[in-house]
Amino acid sequence: MNDHVVLGDRLDAYTWGHFPTGPDGPWLEPLTVLGAMAGITSRVRLSTGILIAGLRPAPVLAKSVATLDALSGGRVDLGVGVGWQREEYDAQGLDFASRGRRLDDTIAACRELWTQWPASYSSDTVSFDAVWCSPRPVQDRLPVWFAGTLNERNLRRIVDLGDGWIPIMGATSDDIRDGAERLRSATDRAVAVQATLPLVRDADRVVDLAATMAAVPGLVAAGVTNVYVNVASFARSPETAVDAITGLVDALREVSS
Questions:
Q1: Does pLDDT of 225 surpass 90?
Q2: Is residue 152 part of a domain?
Q3: Cα separation of 118 and 23, whole Å?
Q4: Mean pLDDT, to the nearest integer, of 198-203?
Q5: pLDDT attached to residue 131
Q6: What pLDDT shows up at residue 137?
Q7: Minimum mean pLDDT range among 49-63, 90-104, 200-214
């Protein structure tokens, strides 16, 4: 699930192609939607990709995510990033320029709230002392994925606080390979790496699943552990979604065997 709390009309700040909606697009709140999904599923992972974590007070975010993990039996992956539109921060009286620092502090504070009783944390953007946040997540370590270009700051975030990297939209296989190698060199922990799987279409603009999945071995060789496919790109309705997802899974099993 992706995240926008509010949107202004300056969609030109989105530099990764055509923004999929207008400013009035119905962006459902991700954790709420995943809570609904948790109630009707038992095995699938529930992930945000991404949640603009710094728009939420750290104790509220820690409580919401821990609750979702408890209700789902430990199936949450929290993908986070800084966001790209100033108006989202302005609407909450937050400094857009310091959004990177706020992301760091928010996730560090959540880690404390999820693991320490009582928990204390102090920084320029988040501060609390001797508080309890219960329930804790079911998972011993709730996975946090950081999105974006793997610059030095994002590398440090992932090494210090994270468990996975979601490369910036448009990242090439070489970008991902270089980033995965840098992550392996920077930490002894296993860090997951996600990549978007480009859809290959035939002459009739129908997705060719076999050709699409042919890219998977190369991504794995580049260090990718998880592939992301936008099923909505080829399943435009609930009626076609089940067949589309089934075909996708079958094609992935075929190329993985």
A1: yes
A2: no
A3: 41
A4: 85
A5: 98
A6: 98
A7: 200-214
Determine phi and psi for 228, rounding to 5 degrees. Answer: -110, 130
Identify whether 109 is part of a domain: yes
What domain range is 52 assigned to?
A: 11-147
- Tell me if 193 is assigned to some domain: no
CB atoms within 10 A of CB 11: 16
Mean predicted confidence (pLDDT) in 198-202: 86
Residue 196 lies in a domain: no
CATH of the domain at 122: 3.20.20.30
As for how many domains the chain has, the answer is 1
Single pTM value for the model: 0.92
Residues comprising the chain, all counted: 257
- Give the 3-state secondary structure of the chain: CCCCCCCCCCHHHCCCCCCCCCCCCCCCCHHHHHHHHHCCCCCCCEEEEEEEHHHCCHHHHHHHHHHHHHHHCCCEEEEEECCCCHHHHHCCCCCHHHHHHHHHHHHHHHHHHHHCCCEEEECCCCEEEEECCCCCCCCCCCCEEEECCCCHHHHHHHHHHCCEEECCCCCCHHHHHHHHHHHHHHCCCCCEEEEECCCCECCCCCECHHHHHCCHHHHHHCCCCEEECCHHHCCCCHHHHHHHHHHHHHHHHHHHC
| Calculated CA dihedral for residues 154, 125, 47, 208, nearest 10 degrees | -40
pLDDT tens digits, one per residue of 119-159: 999 999 999 999 999 999 999 999 999 999 999 999 999 99
Cis-peptide, bond into residue 118, ω within 30° of zero? yes
